[in-house]
Every structure is written in C-alpha cells, then in structure tokens.
Automatic annotation (TrEMBL):
Pfam families: CheW, HATPase_c, Hpt, Response_reg
Example of a GO biological process term: chemotaxis
Domain Response regulatory: 632-748
Classification lineage: Bacteria, Pseudomonadati, Pseudomonadota, Gammaproteobacteria, Pseudomonadales
PROSITE patterns: CHEW (PS50851), HIS_KIN (PS50109), HPT (PS50894), RESPONSE_REGULATORY (PS50110)
Residue numbers of Phosphohistidine PTMs: H51
Catalysis performed (reactions): ATP + protein L-histidine = ADP + protein N-phospho-L-histidine
Name of this protein: Chemotaxis protein CheA
Record's compositionally biased regions (Low complexity): 148-158
Keywords tagged on the record: Kinase, Phosphoprotein, Transferase, Two-component regulatory system
Annotated CDD domains: HATPase_CheA-like, HPT, REC_CheV-like
Domain of life of the organism encoding this protein: Bacteria
In-chain residues carrying the UniProt-annotated modification 4-aspartylphosphate: D681
Amino acid sequence: MTPDQMRDASLLELFSLEAEAQVQVLSTGLLALERDPTQAEYLESCMRAAHSLKGAARIVGVDAGVSVAHVMEDCLVSAQERRLVLGAEHIDALLQGTDLLTRIATPGNSVGAPDIDAYVALMGRLLDPNAAQQPAQVPTKIETPVEPVSVEPSVPEPLAATEPAPKRKRVTEGGERVLRVTAERLNSLLDLSSKSLVETQRLKPWLAAMQRLKRQQGTGLRALEELNLHLKDHALSLQAQEALGDARRLLAETQQLLAQKTAELDEFAWQASQRAQVLYDTALACRMRPFADVLSGQARMVRDLGRSLGKHVRLEIEGEKTQVDRDVLEQLEAPLTHLLRNAVDHGIETPEQRVLAGKPAEGLIRLRASHQAGLLVLELADDGAGVDLERVRRSIVERGLSPEPTAASLSEEELLTFLFLPGFSLRDTVTEVSGRGVGLDAVQHMVRQLRGAVVLEQTAGEGSRFHLEVPLTLSVVRSLVVEVGGEAYAFPLAHIERMCDLAPEDIVQVEGRQHFWHEGRHIGLVAASQLLNRPSTQNGSQTLKVVVIRERETIYGVAVERFIGERTLVVLPLDERLGKVQDISAGALLDDGSVVLIVDVEDLLRSVDKLLDTGRLERIARQNQAQAPRKRILVVDDSLTVRELQRKLLRGRGYDVAVAVDGMDGWNALRSEDFDLLITDIDMPRMDGIELVSLLRRDNRLQSLPVMVVSYKDREEDRRRGLDAGADYYLAKASFHDDALLDAVVELIGGARA
C-alpha cells in the first residue's frame, strides 16, 4: 500500500468514526424535534451535525455523503429560519438520510448513485413542492459563508483546514480523548495489574519476618549487655575485652541497619500496594462503559416500530451514564431489544384505544439503569394495557400445558411465569414482529448466561414492568471464599442466601436425607467435599459451617470446613484445553498469591440433583472426638464494646479468650497466667499499649509472646510506633468486619487447637 493509499484509508476510517458520532446526534435531535419541532437547541445541534458531516465527506472525497448531508442541512436551516415547519414527513425523510449516511460511511457500502439521486429528489420535493422536476444534484458552488472556498492542497489559508483538523480528535468522552484498544490487550492489562496487586501483598510476610528479626536481635543485644555486666567482676584479658566490645558494636550497628532497612521496606511496601491498587482500579475502569453505549438506536427503533404498527410510542431513558462492563453491555443488547419490541407490540395500545381508556394517545416506555449491591438493575416499564391474564390462562389450556381446573387456580405470578416458557406466545398469527415462538424464554436464557435474573410484573390496564438484575462486570466477582478439603473455593455472593453455623442437633433426617430448618422451610444439606471431590476432614469445631446457595427456586445448604472471608476476585478464565470443568466456572488469585477456584453454582446444583437421583448423596457425620487443648488469647482494651466484639469473634473461631480492661490489668494477667497471643489497644488508662508491649519484651518469660496491636489510629507513624515497640502485627479496628482480625491471628499462632 502506497503512502497516499494509507493516508486515504486513515481518513476514511476517521470519517466513519465521525459519521457514527454525528448520526447519533442527528437521531437523538430528530426524535426530540418530532415531539416539538420548534426546539431551537435541537435544531441547532442537528444542523451542525449535518454541516460537519458534509465538510468531513468533502475532505475525504465521499461525494455521496456531501450530497445527502447538504440537503439535510438545507431542510434544517429552513426550519431554523422559520421558512419551514418540520412535520412527520420531514422527520421521516431526515431519519432516512441518517440511515443513508450510516451506509455511506460503512466500508464496503452498496449505496449507488440512483439511491442518492432519489433521496436528493425527495428532499427537494419536501422543501419546494414546485421544484419536483429539478435535477437531483447539489451544485458544489452553493456554500455557506463559513465554509472553506476550496479544498485544494495549494490553499494556504488556515480556514481551509478548519473543518478536517478537529476530526482527528473528535471522538471524545467527557472531554477526554478516546483511544481504540483491542479487548485482548485490555484483558492482558487487567490480568497484569491484578497480579501486580497480588505480588505487593507478598511483601507483608517479609516485613513481618524482618520485624521479628529486629526484635530478636534487640533481645540478643540486651543479653550481650547483661553478659558484659557479669563479666566486669572477672579479670578478662585485653584481647577478650576488645572482642566483647567489637561484638557489642557490630551487633548495635547491625540492629541500627536492620531498623533502617525495615522502615524503608515498610514504606516501600505501603507505597507499592497503594500504587498497585490504583493501577488495578484504573485498568478495571477501562473495561467499564456507560450504559448509553447499548442504547444506540433504541429510541429510533421504538419510534419506527410504533409507526409501522400504527402506534405513537416514545422511549424515555434514565441512568445512561451508569457504568457497566463492556462484555455485559454486548450481551445485554439483544435481550433489551427484544423487550422493547415486545413492549411496543404487546404492551402499548393503538392511539384510539388509549384515548378511549383515558390515556394520552402517545404511549410511553421507560428504561431505567442503576447500581444496586454490586449489580446492574434495569427496569423497563410501559404504560400499556398490561398482560391479559385470562388470555394467558386459555392459552395454557389450549397448548396442553395444564388441565383447565389447575389453570383456573393459578395465581397471577404463576401465570406470568408461563410467558417465559419456550415457544409460548399470545399471538395466533406470525407477523414481522411476533408470533414465531421466540419469546421471553430467549430473554431469560440470555440474562441467565450473564448470571442474572429477570422478573415480570403487570397491572391490568396500566402496563407491565420487567425487572432485570445482572452483574456490573464479568471480570470481577464479589465472593465468599471457603475452605474445602484444605483448598480454597469461592461462591459468588449473588447466589448466596446466607451463611450459618449449625449445631449437631439442628440437623434432622427427612425422608432419609439430611435437612435443617431455614426461614420456615426444610433445606437439604450436602457436603461440599463430596460435590467437589475433596477429602473430607474434621474442622475440630462443635458446629458445622454452612453456605446456603440459591439458583432461582432451587436452594441447598453446602457444608464447608471454614469461612475464609469475603473477597473481590479478578476472574481468570480456565484454559480452553480443559474444556468445561464440572462445578467450576473460573479461577482467581487471593491476596497471598494462592489460587482459588470459583464455583459454578448452577452446575453445582445440577450435581446435587444427580446425586439425589442416583441415591449416592453421602451423610455428613458429626463426630465428637477428644479435642486438643485450645489456644489462649488475652484481649486488652478499655472499650467494653471492642472487648466483647473481639472476644465473640475469637471464641467463634474456637479460641479460649480472656479480657483485661487496661494495660495494668493486662500486665497482671500476663504475669499470672499463660497465653499464646496478646491483642492490645494503644490508648488506655493507667498503662497504654506501648508501655505494656515494652514491659513484655523486657521480661525473660514473656519476650517471645506474639503481640498484635489493634487501634483506631491508622496513620503510618502510629503503625510504625507500635511495631517499633515490639508488636508483631498492627491492625486497624475498622477491619473487624472482614475477618482481617481472625486471619491475622491464624497467621501469628495458627488454628485454635494446639
């Protein structure tokens, strides 16, 4: 390809992008002008869009685009100057022009000269009925004063470049330039950023180890000082005194260097984690697009479909700027289009019927998008006639889906669920819009593929409402991470009904299967170890950890070994060579770099059904074996609320917990009893936490006891002050709700049993 050809190809690509943006402006403006032809702001925006397209088409040599945009601009200018009142025929013709411009700007288009001539002639007749026979061409001499006189390269005036120059930068969003990036590169960037975030978390154990090493070295230096005091009463040779002095000096220098490097590593780890988090958040945001991206052309489609059916229908949209993952947007377009067409065809009545019912002649469809609890919530409502429930009931009987007595007793909710069955339709004849048997079941199938749900509600004579809930992103999933057979698994929160601890007496046998009582009903109980083919292990607790999962109407309790905590996981697709892994949808990495498998809940429930059908579902045995002694933890805090919260959290995990009301009370308890861990606040009366830790580190019996400082102070200097005093771990009290306290305790002293 020659340089000139490459330049032309680049310009044509820019023209295509320009046309896409300007046609959207034209479509939005024309639909608004159809309701009120005198709105000056929409007339101005449409005229400018047509004018810009004409200039862009001239620059790249697309004469067909120049001709179409020119006659559209003439029509809009006439309306601006009040020489013409835009009617339905003008709006139809202008919208036809936008379609023509889209085809012209599409590479490989099949728009021929007859199509252009016919359109120019049509616009000529609408603008001047007496000029119906005038030639269907646009003289190139007819220009407005603001346009360049010539587009020859030899023209040096800056005015000649005023139209094309901005085209290379016009594709903007929120005032920012937009770059075109492939999905593969974007996914790779998100993957690398998530791994970077995980890698920074691996610095934490290194930092904790250096803190312990610094503390042990301090203990060694103090022991050397005590040895020096004892040896003063003995006559040492000069050589021995020098060796002892060198050892003290070297140890002191080493401790100083270690303290300095530990502080530097602490600072580096904190900054690295912050930057990695920002990088990850930014990369994730790159996948998000405004909901408006899926709405392109929908308002026009509703309007045109309504006119073809003899109806006046308007689409109102709220929440266009709601951010959604690109992949979710792409998969939402088809079900949304189907629901909108369904609302126009089945929901909205004809103008005559609406007027007789006391409604405006124009029907209204509202589409609202919003965020709610990590989900994209869509509500699509129309003010039509609603669903004819008696007609649905008759159709159920006619199709043999239910006997007449049963159908007569069905509730409204039950009747509406039949509309989602494959092949179910209320139309007896096939039209271009309805009656092919491809109905709401297709919508439900597509929404379920997005791990979402759709619900239909209606009010007779007032309209119908579809409620859709889908994840905001398929790249990230908020999950509950649990332990099964010594491995980590993640259950998406969207499928979790609740978590609970079951005592042995709460498990009952019903019809030979294990159940427990939950919200007024018996819930079947299954072992995650059997479903996921993991070895069954005893967690040493008197209670059973259960995750209650739900998929539509199916609900089960899944017994696991341990709740690790709630996590936001970056979804890592499984290698395609593995095929479909039973009960698993994807993988992810935890903060420490370990792998976690994300459970496919729908598949898991199918596995439960298979085990039930074959009679192979195993019972969960609760064995009361002799338990090893529990580890003891001393909690020191002057706040009763905090003490009780920590005590309940730790006791719930199986630890033996004692409490003290301040530093002095805690010091007395430490000297009189044995503990495996000290958890202390900083600000307390009589003796604060720093003094308590300092006393403990100077005591020969207690100096090796692990210490965790828990404080409301989350500043860097406060954290460093606590660690320098000899603490092994520093935690902010705001972290209690996410199992951070329990995870830190396990990291320091392990599980509750010795």
